[in-house]
Amino acid sequence: MNKKRISEEMEKILNKQVTNEAWNAEIYLAYGAWADDQGMTGLSNYLFRHSKEERDHMMKFMQHIMQRGGKVKIDQIPKPLENPKNLKECLENLFEAEVENSEAIYKIINLALEEKDWATWNFLQWFVKEQIEEENLVEELLDRYNLISGGGEINGSDLYQFDKDLSKEEDEADIARDSSIEKQ
Ligand SMILES: [Fe+2]
Ligand SMILES: [Fe+2]
User: Fold this and answer.
1) Which ligand is nearest to the CA of 126?
2) How far is the CA of 24 from the centre of ligand 2 (A)?
3) Which of 35, 36, 49, 173 is the most buried (most CB within 10 A)?
4) What digits encode the pLDDT tens for the residues 120-160?
5) How far is the CA of 8 from the centre of ligand 2 (A)?
């Protein structure tokens, strides 16, 4: 008896997303280490916490594949992005990575719709909301940065304050974590 309730193509694209989320976790880890090296401990902790959320996303995709009778294939994770030149580039790259990830998720939704795979379609709705939140989180940081810098680079006491404000933002990151796999 075949208990598999996702198509081959769906299984493949969902597994690809497992790797994608793991890759995002790696990016946040790498950038967190970079931020620490730059002396930005507020940003560093913020990024490390976020890395954990990306890992939770990875687990959610794995669980869905398993629950639908599919097979999880853990693949090699691509190298994270190169270290950014500065804080501006750091935030811009993170924003782009989040938008790219949303697009990858929308592709899976399109396939679910095509295949009338409503179980997967329903599962993905959580991610639609989560990605709106994630894009907004980074966008807000970028907006705050641009406001302070007026388009250029920030340093000195402005940079210190930006980093210090981030260290107070634990609760905001926790909101996204509330819906993580551990709390279900
Ligand atoms: Fe994610
Ligand atoms: Fe994300």
Assistant:
1) 1
2) 7
3) 35
4) 999 999 999 999 999 999 999 999 999 999 878 888 999 99
5) 26
Tell me the C-alpha distance between 29 and 20, whole Å: 14
In a domain, 159, yes or no: yes
Is residue 3 included in any domain, yes or no?
no
How many other CB atoms sit within 10 Å of the CB of residue 141? 21
CA distance 16 to 75: 8
Distance 149 CA to ligand 2 centre (A): 25
Alpha helices by DSSP H, the chain? 8-37, 41-67, 87-115, 118-149, 156-167, 170-178
Number of separate domains in the chain: 1
As a whole number of angstroms, the distance between CA 103 and CA 119 comes to 20
HSE of 114, CA atoms in CB hemisphere, 13 A: 9
Q: Could you tell me how far CA 5 lies from the centroid of its own chain?
A: 27
pLDDT digits (tens, 9 = 90+) for 42-75: 999 999 999 999 999 999 999 999 999 999 999 9
| Domain assignment present for 42 | yes
Give the structural domain span for 122: 8-176
Q: What is the CATH number of the domain that holds 109?
A: 1.20.1260.10
* 32: in domain: yes
Predicted local confidence at residue 182, as pLDDT: 55
CA of 57 to the centre of ligand 1 (A): 5
